[in-house]
Specification:
heterodimer, A: 122 residues, alpha+beta, 3 helices, B: 150 residues, 5-stranded antiparallel sheet, 5 strands
Chain lengths: 122, 150
């Protein structure tokens, strides 16, 4: 999906995270690692949340979400969001997924190795 | 200027967050979450919010921590990691008490790390039922100090 400026501004308003780093090029030039506007890490995390919540059958089934943000997501990036089941716990009736968000340039915005969602299977 | 390590363990005054259907709808649309229940449920239904909506509930803790003059942080920072652990979903109509703690400060000179924990409880429940815990790590830069600091 496309993470463009309207998407980032919509997320800023919806989340209340109005840090100008995400939409003001003058501020971004000073403090952004890319010297340009980058999407909220939390927007990338929320995309993984939407994916696993649909897979799980609704918010009631989501036990935990973890995301580690590795590379910045430049505004205007097209990203791929993925989830891979890495563990099933029969005792707890949970599934653990590795979740990831990757740009078309191959930059890992949310790193699958350390980003997880735990889903209740019952 | 490095962060003040004595601020580790500091608990900010709790704030209240009241969950409205329209705010949840706005967040769901912004993040590509399913809006079937939010759109379809009768007014007054305690519809479950998308899990990531926890970021909107706990978001006010970030300016509390960063703007704390005792800490010495600036907005020259990056979000390194985030997790949410749920006892139950956040629901429309919830009145939530959010308590923000500076869990850990790691001063490393030009890029300090802060761990922040926000505990979210339901104030309508007499026992203050725990709803979720949000844990985040922030990296705060100090690029103004030409001699490198410590």
């Amino acid at each position: 999906m496309l993470v463009d400026l309207p998407a980032v501004v919509r997320y800023a308003g919806a989340s209340g995270d109005l840090n100008p780093l995400h939409y003001d090029p003058a501020v971004a030039q000073r403090i952004s690692p890319t010297e340009d506007v980058i999407a909220h890490g939390m927007l990338a995390m929320a995309l993984t949340s939407a994916l696993v919540t649909d897979w799980a059958g609704g918010p009631e089934h989501v036990r935990s979400l973890t995301a580690s943000f590795k590379k910045p997501c430049p505004v205007g990036s097209t990203v791929t969001v993925s989830g891979t089941v890495v563990e099933i716990d029969d005792q707890q009736a949970t599934a653990t997924l590795a979740v990831a968000v990757t740009t078309t340039d191959g930059d890992r915005v949310v790193v699958g190795r350390t980003s997880r969602a735990v889903i209740a299977l019952s | 200027m490095a962060l003040n390590p004595d601020r580790e363990g500091y608990v900010h005054p709790a704030y209240t967050y009241e969950v409205s259907r329209e705010k949840v709808r706005e967040y769901a649309i912004a993040t590509g979450a399913d809006t079937t229940d939010i759109d379809g449920d009768e007014p007054g239904t305690a519809t479950a919010a998308p899990p990531a909506f926890a970021a909107a509930v706990t978001g006010r803790s970030l300016p509390m921590v960063v703007d704390d003059p005792q800490l010495g942080a600036t907005w020259d920072l990056l979000h390194v990691s985030q997790s949410f652990d749920f006892s139950r979903p956040v629901r429309v109509g919830d009145v939530l008490s959010c308590t923000t703690r500076v869990d850990r400060i790691l001063t490393r000179g030009r890029a300090d790390l802060i761990d922040v924990v926000v505990d979210v409880a339901d104030v309508a429940d007499r026992g203050g039922e725990s709803v979720l815990r949000a844990s985040s790590t922030l990296m705060v830069f100090d690029r103004g100090d030409a001699d490198g600091g410590a």
